[in-house]
Input
Amino acid sequence: MLKNLKIKRRIITFLARMHFFGNPSSKLKVVGVTGTSGKTTTVTLLYRIALSLGYKAGLISTVENLINGEKIEASYNVPSTTPDPIFLNKLLNKMVKEGCEYVFMEVSSHAMDQNRVAGVHFAGGIFTNLSQDHFDYHKNFENYFKAKKKFFRMLPSDSFALSNTDDKYGDRILEGIEAQKYSYGFSDGEDFHGEIGKLYSGGSELIFNNNEIKSKLLGKFNAYNLLSVFSASSLLGFNEENVIKIIETVEPPRGRFEHFTSPNGVLIIVDYAHKPDALEKILLAVKETKQADGRIISVFGCGGDRDVTKRPIMAKIGAKLSDMAIFTSDNPRSEDPEKIINDMKEGLDIEDFQKVKNIPNRREAILEAVRIAEKGDIILCAGKGHEDYQEINGVKYHFDDMEEFKKAYAK
Output
């Protein structure tokens, strides 16, 4: 039965690509980005750079799908990070018709396992990093890695494969592939080498291949995102001097370390981090930027009907790296929010419990964080980022973290 399902997928892919849409990817320079974290930021920044340089370009991401700066109409909306072959080729075909030269898209592990991008011709692929995620689907880390590796195996010899070799899987992802191999990182010996001069609450000062760069993006993890973007831009032949100027002006994508400072001097950060590694990176980035006497107050939960094993891990990270952690609902879906929070608390010790508050209602959790935060503190609200809804018992209710914070301060 499984074999028959795979055959059907291949037939659908072939029909979608060759018959209905005329193999649109062959008329575009498509760059795919895969990894656990950083995909959305990387493709969004590459897309913005291409537009700023005067190219016509398309974006396919978790947050939004865009063509030449315009949101794609409803009939072209896609149901997931990486759409199925018919949706994807329909989208690529529209981008061809709109005159796009470049397309930057996220490539998820689910997409690779389900052959959603089969037949797409990629001009390049980027690997960001790998940490625990989607074990409810892939079952174990090796299967998860193999799904990512599959993307790089499909890259043709005339494309580039760019990998973060500071990540322990960065070298493995490049082994035995046909594409031209390139590396980036902040260690030594990479093709694209970065150095971090300064990280602070207003951004970062970086050096990429001896070029000094000042960015508005916060944190070390964003330094990696920026280096991957700088590296890929070079491989695509973009003018280096102009790319640097654009990098220095770009804002973070919506819900990716999106921030503002409240009237009473509290830095509010909203981020999509919803897995252990991402939460740890984001909290470490917050720690790097906070004032010496400031506190970190985190607000986060874990999604219902998803990987249960990461709940106590995320709770432990949040409690350890925060001065106060407020456990709340994410998208509980069909599960009881209090049950999810109880699963999270299984990873805590006595010292952790002293720093934790349980407030299942996310709006009330945000209000509590606002109530207790003082000048110089940082509130990190993680897990939902760009999402403007909360899914409870099969119903999606409007809920936007950034909107809630601004309402709270307006009061």
The longest helix spans residues 2-20. The radius of gyration is 21 Å. The CA atoms of residues 234 and 240 lie 7 Å apart.
